[in-house]
C-alpha cells in the first residue's frame, strides 16, 4: 500500500446566514469536487529517527537592549537521517513556551552533510526580563529536507526561572526525545506527529494555485491505547469543520497491530481564502478498526477556537497548543510547520 496524498476542493460560502434560534447549523462550508491522487513525492519514512548526540549553547540577557540571546555553538554526534548517503542536514530551532506562537520561532542556518555542525549563531528575542522568567526555552535540532519532510533529531527544554544567568559560557547538553511530560496524565492517549502548511492563492506564480490550499501531513502517531492483546489496527480520519459530510471526509490507510503507526499521509484542501482560516477547524481523529465497529482513540482540533463566524459551537475547544500551531501556519505562508500534539477526548 503506497502512501497517498488526497486533494479536496473546499469552498466557503461567503453568504453568512443568520441561524434560527436554538440552532448552530451553518452552510458556511460546501465542497465542490473531490479528487484523489497518488503522489510518490509524499512516500517515505520521515521523522522516525531516534534522538542522540549533544548540543552546545549559552544563554544571556542583554539588559540594555532588553533582549534574550541564545548563542548556538555546535552539535556533536547527531543521528543520521539518510543512512544510504550517510548524511544529515541539521539546523537548530528555538521557541519560548508556553505561547510559542506569540514570540515565534528562531532558526539557525542549515549545515549540510554533517552530524557535527558548527553554527556560532545568536538567536534573539525582544522580551522583558520579568516576562522571560516565566517562560521555558525549547531548543530542538532538525534535519532539513528540500521537500519539507524535516526530521526531528532531539531537543532540550530549559526552565528559565531557575537558570543561572551568571553562566554565560557555552555548555554541552544531551539531546532528548520529544517531551511527553505534558500528556503523561491519566488521560494520556498518545501523540500525533504532523506538519501543516498554507499556500495562499497565486503565491507560487500567476494564478498558481488558483485558490488557497491547506496541506495536512499526518506522519505518525505514538503511544496509542492498546485495546486488545493483539495490538491496535489504527487509522486517522480528517474533517474540515463545520462540514462533517463525506465531502470533506478523508482517511488514511489502516496500520495493523502497531501502537506506534506510521502513516505518511498528506491531505490537500483547496478553495481556502486567507480570511477563511480563522473560521475553519481541522479535526483529526484516530480510530481502532474492527469489523463491526470502530473505537475512538483520541483526536485534535486545529483552529483558532472562535466558533462558526462567532457563533458558539461544540468544536471551538482547541487547546492553547492547537491554537498556537494553527496560528503559526497562518503567519508562515508556504512553510511546513511541524508539531507533536497530544491526542485527547473530543
UniProtKB/TrEMBL annotation:
SMART domains: C2. One of its GO terms (biological process) is exocytosis. One of its GO terms (cellular component) is plasma membrane. It is found in: Cell membrane. Residues 51-173, 188-317 form the C2 domain. Its main location: membrane. Keywords: Cell membrane, Exocytosis, Membrane, Repeat. GO terms for molecular function: neurexin family protein binding. It holds the Pfam family C2. Gene3D superfamilies: C2 domain. This is Synaptotagmin-like protein 2.
Amino acid at each position: 500500500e503506497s502512501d497517498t496524498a488526497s486533494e479536496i476542493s473546499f469552498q466557503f460560502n461567503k453568504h453568512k446566514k443568520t441561524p434560527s434560534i436554538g440552532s448552530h447549523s451553518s452552510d458556511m462550508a460546501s465542497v465542490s469536487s473531490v479528487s484523489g491522487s497518488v503522489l510518490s513525492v509524499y512516500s517515505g519514512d520521515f521523522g522516525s529517527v531516534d534522538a542522540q548526540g549533544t548540543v552546545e549553547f549559552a544563554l544571556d540577557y542583554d539588559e540594555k537592549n532588553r533582549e534574550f540571546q541564545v548563542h548556538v555553538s555546535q552539535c556533536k554526534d547527531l543521528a543520521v537521517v539518510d543512512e544510504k548517503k550517510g548524511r544529515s542536514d541539521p539546523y537548530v530551532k528555538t521557541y519560548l513556551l508556553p505561547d510559542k506562537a506569540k514570540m515565534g520561532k528562531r532558526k539557525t542556518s542549515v549545515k549540510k552533510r554533517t552530524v557535527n555542525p558548527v553554527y556560532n549563531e545568536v538567536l534573539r528575542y525582544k522580551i522583558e526580563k520579568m516576562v522571560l522568567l516565566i517562560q521555558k526555552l525549547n531548543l530542538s535540532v532538525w534535519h532539513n529536507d528540500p521537500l519539507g519532510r524535516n526530521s526531528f533529531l532531539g531537543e532540550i527544554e530549559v526552565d528559565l526561572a531557575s537558570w543561572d544567568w551568571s553562566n554565560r559560557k557555552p555548555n554541552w547538553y544531551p539531546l532528548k526525545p520529544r517531551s511527553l511530560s505534558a500528556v503523561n496524565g491519566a488521560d494520556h492517549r498518545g501523540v500525533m506527529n504532523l506538519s501543516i502548511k498554507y499556500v495562499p492563492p497565486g503565491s507560487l506564480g500567476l494564478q498558481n494555485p488558483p485558490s488557497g490550499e491547506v496541506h495536512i501531513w499526518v506522519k505518525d502517531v505514538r503511544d496509542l491505547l492498546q485495546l486488545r492483546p493483539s495490538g491496535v489496527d489504527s487509522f486517522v480520519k480528517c474533517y474540515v469543520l463545520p462540514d462533517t459530510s463525506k465531502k470533506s471526509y478523508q482517511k488514511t490507510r489502516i496500520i495493523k497491530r502497531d501502537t506506534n503507526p506510521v502513516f505518511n499521509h498528506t491531505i490537500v484542501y483547496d478553495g481556502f481564502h486567507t480570511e477563511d482560516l480563522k473560521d475553519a477547524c481541522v479535526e483529526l481523529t484516530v480510530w481502532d478498526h474492527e469489523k463491526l465497529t470502530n473505537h475512538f482513540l483520541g483526536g485534535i482540533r486545529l483552529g483558532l477556537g472562535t466558533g462558526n463566524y462567532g457563533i458558539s459551537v461544540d468544536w471551538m475547544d482547541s487547546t492553547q497548543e492547537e491554537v498556537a500551531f494553527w496560528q503559526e501556519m497562518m503567519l508562515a505562508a508556504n512553510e511546513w510547520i511541524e508539531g507533536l500534539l497530544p491526542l485527547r477526548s473530543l
